Structure formats: C-alpha cells, structure tokens
Amino acid sequence: MEQQASFFRGSTEARRPSSPADAMSDDELHTLIENIDWKEDLIGRMPDIDIMGSPQVYRLRPYDLVAKYLWTDSRNEVYTMQLVQQHTTIHVPRVHRVIPDRISGQGLWLIMDYIDGECLLAVWPRLSWWRRLQVVCTLRSYIQQLRRVPLPSLNIPGPFDGTGRPLPCIGGHFPEDTGPFPTYTTMAAWHDEQNHRYQVYRNESSDGSYFWRYSRFNTSAPLVLCHFDLHLRNIMLDRNNQVWLIDWAFAGAYPPWFEYVPLGFWANAARPDRRLPRSFVRFMDFIVGGCASWYFTNYIAKLDSRPVGFRHCVIDNDHFIKRGVDPKLYQPVEVARPSYCQFMARKCLDIVYDSLLGIRSLLVVN
After folding, report:
1. Structure pTM?
2. Could you read off the pLDDT of 156-208 as tens digits, one per residue?
3. H helices of the chain, where?
4. Which residue intervals make up region (Disordered) (predicted)?
5. For the segment 277-290, what is each residue's pLDDT rounded down to a tens digit?
6. Cα(191)–Cα(189) distance, rounded to whole angstroms?
7. Separation between Cα atoms, residue 228 and residue 259, nearest integer Å
8. Contact, 110 vs 248, CB < 8 A?
9. CA distances (Å), origin 354, targets 15, 70, 140, 241
10. Which CATH class is domain 2-114?
C-alpha cells in the first residue's frame, strides 16, 4: 500500500488542481464513506446489464467525489490511470486517495473525482448523428493515444503496476486469474494450449475420427496499452460534452486488436437487451481500427464459444503421439491472420480515417 501511495503522491501532484480530498485526512474520508446512503448514492446501476451485480461506486456528498470499492489490490488500476493522464489528453477521473475499508476489514476504497454526466449507453439514443460521429472520432483518437503510451515492460502482457512483476490477466476471454504471463510468448502459448485442449477433447469425443485444426496465436503486433473494457457504460459524456473513459481495472498490455474483444462480446450478447446498439456497432471497426474485428470473429469468438467444461477436463498432452497419429493431421500449419488483401484494405482505410481525424483536430476543439 505504501508503494502505491508513494507513486500516487509523486506522479502528478505538482500539476493537479486542488481538491477537497487533498485537505482531508483518511479518518474524514472514512466518515464520509460511513455516511453513504447505499441506495441513493449508488452510481452507475444498470440492472439490465449488471450480470455480476452493480459496480460499487458511491457519491461522497456534498463533495464532487466518489468512492469505488475494490475487493483486491488496486495498484494496477491506479497506476494505469496515472500513466494515461501523464501521456495522453484522454479524460480520466483523478484518483485522490486509496484507503483500506475499515468497516469490513478487507478491500480498498478509491477516492476519485465525480464526473457530472451520463454514460454513453444511456445517452447514445438521444444523440444526433453528428454528435455520435464526434464521439466515435474522439474514441478512435483515444485508442490511438493509448497505443503510444510507453509501457513499463515491452514484453510482459497483462495488467501492470510499475513493479515490473507480471499480473494475472482479467476481463475479455480470460477465465478468472489467468496467468500471470512473464512474456508475450507465454501468453501466446496459453492461447495455443486452449486450442490444443479443445482439439484433443473433440478427437476423444469422436472416438479418434475427428481432427479439428487451429491456427497459432499471432504475436506479430507489439504489445500496447488497452483499456480492455470499452463497454458503453465505461464511456461517459459530461455536461460539457467531453468524452471520459472510466473503470480501468482490466487495462493492460495486449495486442492492439484486443481492444475490440469486449466490444465484440457485448455486440453479440446472448440476450438482445444486453447487446450494444446497432448504430454503435457500425462504428466499432472505425473506433478500434486495423483488422481487430477479423481477429475477434475468427479467433477469439471461436476460442470463447466452446463448452466451459472442457477447460477443466484432464487432457493428455501426448494424446495424438500415443495413438501414432500423423502430425500433419493435427498440428497447426499457420498463424491466425487475415488475408493480405484484407490487411491492406484495412490499412488503406486507416490512413484515410487518420487523415480525416487530423483535419478534424485542426478545425474542431473537442
């Protein structure tokens, strides 16, 4: 906790505007938390999509502050938010303090700025088409800025907290506490292992008659900073029409196309009432760029759509060798990637989009 606090105090303290939280002691902040109206002060509750329960974020009245409750260590979320504030123009809530929860004796409270606005999921239907276009252009700009943020390590995937240690990957298609992966290669090997496990599972269930082929994970793209939870509830518009990104708990170093993963899952949610608006889905390729949608549709979605149970089955890694199967029948022969024509088409589109965004930045102040 002390290491986290020291980073927090030393990173942007000199250039931050003052806040009521800066003058408060931990005891005073705890008193505000203890006086929360757990129903009236709850922020961001959306029953239709709160599959795992509402986010525990509460208004700390009478101040423009919120308290977010976390069950686990928050250093990666705080560190990432500070890194984004230092290196980009992305609007991110400031974290003023991280204090332990003395009511339950476990967990932490993040004290942050209150953003006076609405999440994009709620406001999107009311936006004009012109305003929607402005928002998605801003989101594309934000993602491009994230990809230019310097990473603490260029070869360690997943969340990071400035210590140099790898952390478990969370969110997207990762089961709970996947990893940690010390290198990019080991994360790629985990994906290949999931494919191989399913390959063995299908072969055994067909009495050895079916050979499912898979492609190896593509590591050609460098690791970049991804928010990795770009649901419309985590994008906010404030009263000045500025776009904010909130909830950085899943953020980490991943291939650029990983940014599409949560969007792709929500766009194809099993329940129609939980899916993203179609009018927003049309912009997802533009927002993330590149061949991200191809990787989601042809790799991640297929990896994630398999029965959950097979991941917990005991699989013999030498299954095919012991049966004397010709390696040509089961070994991957290619890396997962779109065709050259698809890649070049997307590349040309990105050049056009970025040129238009450059012109927009000269004419419009966001």
Report:
1. 0.89
2. 999 999 999 999 999 999 988 798 999 999 999 999 999 998 888 888 888 88
3. 2-11, 26-34, 75-87, 120-123, 129-147, 184-205, 260-267, 278-281, 284-288, 292-295, 301-304, 319-322, 340-363
4. 1-24
5. 999 999 999 999 99
6. 5
7. 5
8. no
9. 31, 38, 9, 22
10. alpha beta
